Amino acid sequence: MSFAPALHAEWIKIRTLRSLLGALAAILVATAAFSALAATDADDSDPLFSVFFGINFGQVAAIAFGTTAVASEFRGGALRLTLSAVPDRGRWFAAKATAIALPALAVGLLTGFVTLLVGRSVLGASAPGWSAGLRGAVGCGVHLTLMALFAAGLATVLRSGMATLSVLIPFLLIVSFVVGDLSGGVADFLPDRAGQVALHSGWDGTLGPWSGLAVTALWAAAALLAGAWSLRRRDV
C-alpha cells in the first residue's frame, strides 16, 4: 500500500474513534476555558500569557490525543492487522504521524484564535495587540501539535497508553514546574516550556518565540525517531 491510502486509512481510524474526537474537542475547551478564567485575574506585566494560560491544560489533552492514537494499535493485535496491509513499517508510521499532526494542527490553530478572541474580550483595554496576539495564536497551534507528536513517539516506544500518560502528565503538571524553579535557564529547554515562549509578551532567556518552538520540535522529532526505531527493531 502506498502512502496516500495508508494515510487515508489512519485518518478513518482517528475520525471514527470517539476517544480521539473527544481529546481533540478537549484541546479547544480546556485551553479556551482556563484562559478565560485566567484573564479575569490577568497579570498586567504579561497580558499575552494571561490570554493563553489555558494551554497548560490544553496540552494535556493534546498528549492524550497523540498517545491514544498510537496506543490503540498495540491493543488486541491491531498492529499486526495494520502491518499486514502496510508491510513497510516506516511508511505506516509516517502515515500515522501525519494523521495525528494534521487534525492536531487544525484544532490547535482554531484553539489559538478562539482563545485569543475570548481573552481579548475579557481583558478589554489591557489586551495584547493584534501582532503579538496573532503570534501567540499561531504559536499555540504549533505547540499543541508538537506535544501531540511528542506523545505519539513516546507511546510507540513504550507501547502503552497508560505508561505514556503516567510519564507525561506528572511531568507536565509537576516536574516541569519544580525543575523550572530549581534550575533556572535549563528548564527553558524542556519541551513544554520551550514552546510556550511564543505565548509571552517578552522573554529574558536564551530562547525566543520561534527558537523555543524549534526546541520543542526537536523533542518531538527525537521521540518520533525513537518510535520509528523501536517499531522496526521489535516484534509486533
Protein architecture, described:
The protein has about 240 residues and is mainly α. About 80% of the residues lie in helices and about 0% in strands. The protein is built from ten helices and no strands. The protein has helices at about 5-15, 20-40, 45-50, 55-70, 80-85, 90-125, 130-160, 160-185, 190-195, 210-235. The longest helix is centred in the middle third of the chain and has 35 residues, at about 90-125. It starts with a helix and ends with a helix.
**Could you tell me the number of beta strands?**
0
Helix fraction bin: over 70%
Helical stretch tally? 10
User: Class by helix and strand content?
Assistant: mainly alpha
CA-based gyration radius: 18 Å
Strand content: under 5%
Overview in brief:
The protein has 236 residues and is an all-alpha fold.
Keyword list:
236 residues; single chain; mainly alpha
